[in-house]
Structure formats: C-alpha cells, structure tokens
Amino acid sequence: MANMNTPDLSAAMWRKSSYSGDNGGNCVEVAPGFPGVVPVRDSKDPDGPALAFDASAWSAFVAGVKAGDFGA
C-alpha cells in the first residue's frame, strides 16, 4: 500500500533498478535514504508522480520478485 504522506523528494538521489535495461522499457527508480519509506517512480517520467511505500512492504515486494512470485 502506498504511503499517503509522500516525503519531499526535491533532493532525492534516484537510482534505476539493476534489472532495468537500457532499451527504455518498463523501468523503476528508487530513492534511498528516507527513513521508513521507499520512494518509487517511473524512470521514463522523472518529472511525473512518485509513490512512497512503507519500507517493510517494499522489502516484501522485492523478496517476492526475487522468488519469482509474480511470474515472468
């Protein structure tokens, strides 16, 4: 579930997922360094909206992706 209190991301240092290629496909970026939340945005729309997920929910999602829980 997205956190309704998105932090100020104006100085965020975004990094692209290591699973993203350079082909302009479906890529996400995350901004580390925000206690308790993980800001996420679409790398193709860096000026667009971002979501801030609870850190434990984001960790569970990443673990599920690594385990193949969401298919290919």
From TrEMBL:
InterPro entries attached here?
A: DUF397
The family database entries (Pfam families) matched by this protein are listed as: DUF397 (PF04149)
Q: Where is the DUF397 domain?
A: 12-66
The entry's protein name is: DUF397 domain-containing protein
